[in-house]
Amino acid sequence: MMGLFDPNAVIVNAMFLLFDILTGIFAAVKTGTFKSSIMKDGLFSKLGSVLAVAFCIALDFAQSRFDLGFTVPITNTACTFFIFMNIMSCVENFNKA
Known about the structure:
By secondary structure, this protein is mostly helical. It is 80% helix and 0% strand. The chain is built from 3 helices and no strands. 19% of the residues are buried. The model has no long low-confidence stretch (mean pLDDT 93).
């Protein structure tokens, strides 16, 4: 554990994010709906989730160094949310393919 979060949560989140990107590309190619503009929108969305996790890591680090008035493992919670979101997206991609 590093501070308030488990680095493994970030690693697992990154793995499912990559699975979601790969299954999305596979489904789009298989169904003939691959468009770079749609892929660009999806990648920007994924970048947003990566930035959100990075922000949560910074908050957890700050909580471990300063009294912010709260001590909540924000990164683990955010990673859990994004992991489930990516799993559901992968399931949708499997259904399309």
